[in-house]
Amino acid sequence: xxxxxxxxxxxxxxxxxxxxxxxxxxxxxxxxxxxxxxxxxxxxxxxxxxxxxxxxxxxxxxxxxxxxxxxxxxxxxxxxxxxxxxxxxxxxxxxxxxxxxxxxxxxxxxxxxxxxxxxxxxxxxxxxxxxxxxxxxxxxxxxxxxxxxxxxxxxxxxxxxxxxxxxxxxxxxxxxxxxxxxxxxxxxxxxxxxxxxxxxxxxxxxxxxxxxxxxxxxxxxxxxxxxxxxxxxxxxxxxxxxxxxxxxxxxxxxxxxxxxxxxxxxxxxxxxxxxxxxxxxxxxxxxxxxxxxxxxxxxxxxxxxxxxxxxxxxxxxxxxxxxxxxxxxxxxxxxxxxxxxxxxxxxxxxxxxxxxxxxxxxxxxxxxxxxxxxxxxxxxxxxxxxxxxxxxxxxxxxxxxxxxxxxxxxxxxxxxxxxxxxxxxxxxxxxxxxxxxx
Length: 438
Prior knowledge:
Layout: H1 2-7, E1 18-23, H2 29-41, E2 45-50, H3 54-57, H4 60-67, E3 71-72, H5 86-93, E4 96-102, H6 104-112, H7 118-125, E5 130-134, H8 138-141, H9 144-155, E6 159-160, E7 164-167, E8 173-177, H10 181-192, E9 202-207, E10 212-215, E11 218-220, H11 227-238, E12 242-247, E13 259-262, H12 266-277, E14 282-285, E15 292-294, E16 313-315, H13 319-324, E17 331-337, H14 342-352, E18 357-361, E19 374-375, E20 377-381, E21 386-388, E22 392-393, H15 394-416, H16 422-425
Parallel strand pairs: 1-2, 1-4, 2-3, 4-5, 5-6, 9-12, 9-14, 12-13, 14-17, 17-18
Antiparallel strand pairs: 7-8, 10-11, 15-16, 18-20, 19-22, 20-21
């Protein structure tokens, strides 16, 4: 696990970077000390901003000792003066901000633009990515108001490391405890290390399940939620790509800065792909498209008239096969869900669909099924290289998959020995422009 995580982080890009660590007033504040120490160990310059209540749990001197830097706790100096617009200075110098722990109070402030202390005021002035790490009692975490605030903040483009489940400080058991510090540290270093090596590239990604209607209230589908595709869209955008994301029905919030297209059926997804495919350089087919659709859809709800119902089905469009005919020099990435002969079947699909990389998984393996935050995958490229990964978060896998795409681009550039720009080497074969994105 550690080696796999390390492979997703470019440590040369981390040393000397400026991170703002916001600490709010919860019992988990003491864990922020470990996070600060981990960041410093990686060569990161850490500026700590503590709320008044956070200082009741952990002394500012502790953070100052760990970081070797001044700890900021108040908007005003002791004489009431506002020294050098401290919140603006911090916001200008910060390259990435993390709030750990983030209490329900802090979530409410940030979601509603309240700025009544140094931390909330500084966050409003930030222009860099922000990671929010909530920690609170389960009753508070599941409160509809808190859930609404989290949705709002995710919609603003803030990153989250959601709380873990377990025994809480109050003695109750449930979701709400601060995520493991190692997970927060990894996410922070991961975002810090992202380069812009996909600048100039257009990436088209499909995600989620499609639905094929039987009647106005029933449909054929599968349990895919779109988590993998959405994570890939976020990873690609952070690397500088222009991303178009086409998704079936989902409750997920699209990543900020991504062109988002919502569809329902396989035919609608095919049509959306055709509209956006013309100017894409990289196509990632992560959607779980329904393979069959009813020959006839009933205009009215089908009544239960007996013990059996026969439904005639026909095949839906094979999106990967259809676009492979227009592939040109594009890079195509596909996914394969197999319940037996995983690698052999995945290799066959890679060759049949003219893919450059395929990501395969078996839903029967623990941690690799639908509607979960993890996966266990095997990646196979066109050259036959097979890479097997343990159970990892889908967000982590997304970065590893994008890393493999970047590796393929680098190989193409090396082979081309051309003065063309990288994205020009990967240009597609047709000049069709997307009808709804121009």
